[in-house]
Amino acid sequence: MKKYILFFVLLMVTSVSSAEIIKVEKRGIADDQIKCEWNNSDGVPCVTIYPRYTNNSNALGDKITPTLKISKSEIGKYNLIDLPKVLNYVQGLDVTQSGPTGQQGSLFLRGTNSNHTLVLLNGIPINDYSTPTGAHDIGQDFMFNVVQIDVYKGSSGAHWGADAVGGAINFRTTVDYDERLKLSGNGNDQTISGNYYTRLNDFDISVSAGQHKSENVSALSGADEKDGTDNKTIGVNVSKWYDLLHWRTSWFARNTFTDIDGHSVAIQDGKWADNTFYALQTGLDYKNSSLTFHTHEYDRDYDDSHYDSLNYTIRGTQQYKNFGFGFDYKHNESYGKSQWSENTGYGHNLGYFYNLSYNIFSYHHRFDEEHETYKLGFLKELDDGLSISGSTSTSYKDKTQYTAIEYGESQELTLTKNNFATTIFKNDIGDLNTDGIEFSYGQKDFKIFASHLNSKNKDTVQLRRPNWSLGFMHNHDFDNNFSLTTNYKYKGKHLDIHNSNWSTISMPETHLLDLNIGYNYHGIEFGISLLNVLDENYESPHGFSQEGRKFTLGFNKSF
Predict the structure, then answer these.
(1) In order of start, what are the domains of the chain with their CATH numbers?
(2) What pLDDT digit, counting tens, does each position of 491-516 carry?
(3) 540-549 per-position pLDDT tens digit
(4) Which of 143, 167, 185, 235 stands the most exposed, by the fewest C-beta atoms within 10 Å?
(5) Which string of DSSP letters, residue by residue, matches 434-490?
(6) Is there a contact between 429 and 407 (Cβ–Cβ < 8 Å)?
């Protein structure tokens, strides 16, 4: 950690004296960001359009803000269909998937474990507690109904409660006002999606749906049976304004059927997973207060086992300029049955939380039934687009059928110079200790990022967490009709477990390059993509193959 602090001090000195990279009038506000207040005079509220890149400031003001926002426009522009591909381009986050699209996926945020990141739907936790560790399988999630993804790095228990010891990821699904009707398709992987928006008796209604089918390679390395995936996703969002009172309802459903393989070529055939997820939210907003009721259910079937879980959550918040408070009540039920065992679980929690801010400081505190967590942050604006921010926070991971309670704490310090940001961080979760440094630079159609990570458990280097990673995303419009998008991700050497003898092995570095050419012809946007241009033959994790070079052709049309 000392070398990072030294480097950070040197960087501050050089940054203050260096010329401005990009001149912006206000720090953290990109040129393409549009901000406005709610205005219901025309029946449709003015909404905030977030920039495709937001400075990596974890400074909090009067509420906890995400470290990074990924907008709908960015997801579409960079041809990102499923969640693992989207999160693959988040600095400090390593994604592994046991085979191609649709297979089991795990994420490691800043070197923490895969069950240390809480997954949210519109601010409500949706982790599946019928799984052994309570982790969320990101391999099942596709982007057909998501308008924005918020990424929270570091301990976030003071706001979200249990299980956000490494951070949190929030999916936003709201009424989409952008297009009355939009259709998209991809012929190679049989992908089609659409969005429809209408206004009926002062109700704003949008329906988003999509289907993805693919069968390209075997999940198990060395096997010859191709493993297919069939995902269907649908979302319905309804909104109505009564002057200053806003009623909203969101229904979300997803089913992913996937062929899976065991750990041996001899048992590669006949195994499958059928994962279904339902969620319903309804709530009221009045000025700076909100009340939300949420329920979700998982139903997971395999060729030899069955698991399901049910959750109910009610959450209320009230925010003033410099002070806010709220509560949430969560009730979980889970059931699992396999050829070896059968178990049932129940859990509930009532939590209270508040936040306050003064001058450059902000403080958050949360009381759960058996735990307390806090987050103290600061943000100091300096001259010439320079700012410094930092935080210290605590969190806890609730016990599951296979894991005990874990306690964690995080510290981070960020220097931001216009659109360039540097962060040093440290996480301690039980015997797991991580520290590292992150760099990022971004503007409207370009961003580049890099990170260095140390992740150890009792001085043992952790698996599937490379020391170095970097990447960039670039979109260039040659004229009104022609564009080129480039995505690149480097993942350094790391350790893994051999899938046959359980020995520790070294995994090679990977270079993943994707190109997408867009062409607008009479209002129809055609896309030609070349994925894995370098034809990397890689595994993630060991023993499970990924797709090689692939050519796709797609389109989208707005009406």
Answers:
(1) 2-558 (2.40.170.20)
(2) 999 999 987 778 999 999 999 999 99
(3) 889 888 989 9
(4) 185
(5) EEEEEEEEEETTEEEEEEEEEEEETTEEPTT--SEEEEEEEEEESSSSEEEEEEEEE
(6) yes
